[in-house]
């Protein structure tokens, strides 16, 4: 029987029973993760627990109270490992507080940020709801709830009472299309009625210059009343419904301002008709409804465009998989694939799951995931990702992840999460918008009262109040930030830059220094063995070191293991392994003591490092090689292993681009000073720090922040995770370790350092456009209210100005979708969203 976590022969840790994780003691899944430790196979609930366990083992922390270690606590806080009963760490990733479940809805009918605030307020007040995040820019509501106290149906019913319609992610495209179609029909009818009302109103306007027939005075107002009724009560129904829902919930929205303005002009006109007067403003009521619907249609089309990219991500996977079968092949549903299953991809077809090619070769277009437009040749042993396209060739692939476990699904979840988290700037604007509506009502009432007091004219007072209500629309203020952020996140994702949340984007824009890790970041990270110098015959030394390094996951150790396999060198069993993280590893290989690592580590193990060896190491480091020392056979002479690592293509150009952007660049590495100096010289970096351990990297980043720097840290390995988490913004290379990816606020989907200056440029451009939007929104509202209160505008001009302001914010935000900003193209996309475009 396979030993499980918690057996007497296993390491100390949580008390795990049969079927429990060896680290966190949570129940094991159907396909647990496995790892060998001291000859025993241990089972883990997730890859996070497995990686952290191996790190703890390599660090020698399992022998003591490993729960008090920084590594274990950081892993708990980041949600990398689960929380055993009674542990004071963080909840497992994906779980809400107190074991909450989570549901995500598409919300149909959100017209402004005050709508999202209203939904959050009402949903959070429901019993059993732990947390609510509603995002106006993507029409989504993410709700964490306690299943024992409430249900998704009950929460949805409470939100539906406000006049909003909810649907699941699967129905989201249909819900968006239905929302846009409904609004388009109402807008079309409203514009038709407005034109006819304007036409008949001309007859009454003529009455100001010449006498009208008695029949015309009686008939025309009644015709106008008949045409205005469907406009106000059917076309404008969504406006009034939201206004009433907000008022009833004690959280007035901007629709209340519109609804008051429409009804005030309508009922004043009705009173005038019933009393036999001609001072009617049915054209104002109908015009307000039509123009408001036009504005909302433009905003909703822009929001849908911003969110369509995410929907397309969810539908990129092919629904069918071609699998080998007796006598040929057959098609099955892609969701039936499991890890280990084989599937076939032919020329022109998409990969339906993540996997490793086991047979054949193909040119693979990975542009959807990496932004790299050039197809790459992939063959046996190469990894491929779901949604990539085989432009030519024929391959058989072994599945490693399917469905919701694929890289593509992870990207979609990350983008959803990014859109669901508001930046500090957006939260501040939301707070302003909440007090804006009551303030506008006060200003409108004051203006109305002042005009009536000074002129005694009810008609003029009503029009003045209506104008203030319409011009002071907080909608522009509310959508200035979310639309730009959504467009910026989408634009970055298309370039292969995944930003975890809007706050990381905002912080990246403020970066003053970029700190690069060396190995795997500025360099390729694929070390190759270049030989040995010193004590021992090369193949014997290599075999002993390769056997010892088999117990480690260090990149240099992996290079030795690969070289042993290439030379078919025999390796003996390893006992007594001791790993000192960041320093070295020691043990016995076939009874022979072996130690390898830093100079200090090997000296401490009792080996002699002569002057000749020191001089040889200095020469090799000056040439850019990485050096490790070794000692074999107990007390005796030592030697050095040589490793080579190439500078990434475009690294020097990326550093130059960062300098042109006005930021400092530094290099941080655990390698020796001479090697780091050589790499820094090649990359054109002046500031560098060598020989630092993982905790020292984090301390260096902390020191920079204390000095007032905004630090952007770029790394890829496990040893970079503390520094990535400590920086203002961590940037992880896409091929990096899982713990590094989780610690970073930004992930680069391809190993291209040119994306680092691209990240800064995208962040700065997004923040700049957000500020432009906010400046315009504040100026528009302030100037508009002053002009309206002064009587220099009428309601229809105010409504037209509101639409112009909204459209300017939309177009300015959508500039982020195109590198060169094509205003006409973007405007057509918004006005005619259903049209076909050539891709």
How does this model look, in words?
This protein is α+β, with helices and mostly antiparallel strands and 839 residues long. The strands form 6 sheets. The chain has a 7-stranded mixed β-sheet, sandwiched between helices. A 6-stranded antiparallel β-sheet has the order 16-21-20-19-18-17. Strands 9, 10, 11, 12 and 13 form a 5-stranded antiparallel β-sheet that branches. Strand 7 (320-325) and strand 8 form a beta hairpin. The longest helix is centred in the first third of the chain and has 35 residues, at 172-206. The radius of gyration is 33 Å and the shape is elongated. The model is unreliable at 1-18, 83-98, 736-741 and 832-839 (pLDDT under 50).
In summary, what is this structure?
This protein has 839 residues and is an alpha+beta fold.
Query: Radius of gyration from the CA trace?
Result: 33 Å
Mean pLDDT: 76
Q: Taking strands numbered 1, 2, ... along the chain, how are they ordered across the largest sheet?
A: 14-26-25-24-15-22-23
Considering DSSP H and I runs of 4 or more, what fraction of the residues is helical? 40-55%
The shape, in one word, is: elongated
Count of distinct strands: 26
Rounded to the nearest angstrom, the distance between the terminal CA atoms is 56 Å
- Strand fraction equals 15-25%
> pLDDT below 50 for ≥5 consecutive residues: which ranges?
1-18, 83-98, 736-741, 832-839
Largest sheet: 7 strands, mixed
Count of DSSP H/I helices: 28
Helix-strand category:
alpha+beta
């Amino acid at each position: 029987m396979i030993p499980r976590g918690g057996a007497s022969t296993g390491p100390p840790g949580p008390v795990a029973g049969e079927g429990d994780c060896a680290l966190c003691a949570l129940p094991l899944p159907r396909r647990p993760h496995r790892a060998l430790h001291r000859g025993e196979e241990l089972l883990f609930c997730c890859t996070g627990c497995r990686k952290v366990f191996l790190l703890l083992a390599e660090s020698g922390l399992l022998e003591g109270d490993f729960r008090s270690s920084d590594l274990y606590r950081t892993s708990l806080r980041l949600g990398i490992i689960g929380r055993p009963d009674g542990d004071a760490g963080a909840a497992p990733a994906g779980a809400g507080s107190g074991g909450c479940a989570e549901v995500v809805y598409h919300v149909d009918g959100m017209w402004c940020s005050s709508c999202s605030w209203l939904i959050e307020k009402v949903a959070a007040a429901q019993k059993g709801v732990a947390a609510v995040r509603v995002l106006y820019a993507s029409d989504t509501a993410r709700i964490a709830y306690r299943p024992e106290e409430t249900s998704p149906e009950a929460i949805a019913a409470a939100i539906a009472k406000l006049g909003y319609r909810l649907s699941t992610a699967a129905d989201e495209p249909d819900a968006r299309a239905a929302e846009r179609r409904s609004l388009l029909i109402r807008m079309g009818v409203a514009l038709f009625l407005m034109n006819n009302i304007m036409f008949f109103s001309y007859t009454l306007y003529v009455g100001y210059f010449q006498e009208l027939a008695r029949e015309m005075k009686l008939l025309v107002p009644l015709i106008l009343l008949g045409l205005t009724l469907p406009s106000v009560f059917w076309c404008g129904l969504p406006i009034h419904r939201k206004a009433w829902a907000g008022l009833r919930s004690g959280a007035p929205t901007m629709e209340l301002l519109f609804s008051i303005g429409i009804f005030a002009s309508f009922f004043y006109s009705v009173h005038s008709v019933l009393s036999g007067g001609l001072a009617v403003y049915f054209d104002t009521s109908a015009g307000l409804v039509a123009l408001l619907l036009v504005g909302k249609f433009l905003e909703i089309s822009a929001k849908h465009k911003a969110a369509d990219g995410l929907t397309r991500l969810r539908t990129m996977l092919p629904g069918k998989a071609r699998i080998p079968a007796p006598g040929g092949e057959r098609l099955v549903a892609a969701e039936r694939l499991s890890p280990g299953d084989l599937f076939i991809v032919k020329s022109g077809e998409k990969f339906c799951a993540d996997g490793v090619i086991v047979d054949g070769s193909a040119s693979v277009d990975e542009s959807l995931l990496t932004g790299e437009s050039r197809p790459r040749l992939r063959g046996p042993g190469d990894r491929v990702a779901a949604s990539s396209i085989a432009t030519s060739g024929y391959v058989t692939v072994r599945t490693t992840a399917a469905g919701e476990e694929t890289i593509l699904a992870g990207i979609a979840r990350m983008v959803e999460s990014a859109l669901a988290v508001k930046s500090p700037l957006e939260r501040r604007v939301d707070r302003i918008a909440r007090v804006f509506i009551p303030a506008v009502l006060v200003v409108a009432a004051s203006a109305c009262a002042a005009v009536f007091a000074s002129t005694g004219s009810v008609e003029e007072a009503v029009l003045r109040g209506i104008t203030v209500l319409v011009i002071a629309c907080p909608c522009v203020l509310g959508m200035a930030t979310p639309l730009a952020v959504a467009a910026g996140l989408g634009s970055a994702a298309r370039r292969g830059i995944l930003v975890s949340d809007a706050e990381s984007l905002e912080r990246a824009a403020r970066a003053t220094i970029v700190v690069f890790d060396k190995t795997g970041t500025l360099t390729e990270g694929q070390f190759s063995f270049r030989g040995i110098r010193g004590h021992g015959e090369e193949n014997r030394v290599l075999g002993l070191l390769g056997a010892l390094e088999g117990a480690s996951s260090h990149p240099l150790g992996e290079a030795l293991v690969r070289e042993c396999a290439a030379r078919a060198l025999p390796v003996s069993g390893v006992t007594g392994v001791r790993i000192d993280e960041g320093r070295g590893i020691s043990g016995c290989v076939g009874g022979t003591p072996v130690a390898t690592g830093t100079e200090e580590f090997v000296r401490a193990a009792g080996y002699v490092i002569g002057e000749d060896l020191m001089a040889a190491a200095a020469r090799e480091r000056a040439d850019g090689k990485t050096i490790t020392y070794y000692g074999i056979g107990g007390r005796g002479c030592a030697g050095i292993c040589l490793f080579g690592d190439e500078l990434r293509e475009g690294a020097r150009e990326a550093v130059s681009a960062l300098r042109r952007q006005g930021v400092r660049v530094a290099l941080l590495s655990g390698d020796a000073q001479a090697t780091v100096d050589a790499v820094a010289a090649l990359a054109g970096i002046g500031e560098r720090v060598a020989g630092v351990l993982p905790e020292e990297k984090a301390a260096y980043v902390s020191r920079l922040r204390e000095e007032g720097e905004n630090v952007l840290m770029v790394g890829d390995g496990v040893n970079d995770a503390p520094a990535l988490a400590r920086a203002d913004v961590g940037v992880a290379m896409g091929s990096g370790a899982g713990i590094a990816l989780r610690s970073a606020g930004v992930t680069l989907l391809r190993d291209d350092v040119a994306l680092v200056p691209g990240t800064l440029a995208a962040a700065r451009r997004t923040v700049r456009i957000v500020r432009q939007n906010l400046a315009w929104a504040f100026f528009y509202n302030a100037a508009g209210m002053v002009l309206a209160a002064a009587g220099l505008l009428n309601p229809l001009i105010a409504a037209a100005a509101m639409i112009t302001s909204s459209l300017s914010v939309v177009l300015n935000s959508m500039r982020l979708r195109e590198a060169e900003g094509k205003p006409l193209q973007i405007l057509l996309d918004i006005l005619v969203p259903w049209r076909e475009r050539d891709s």
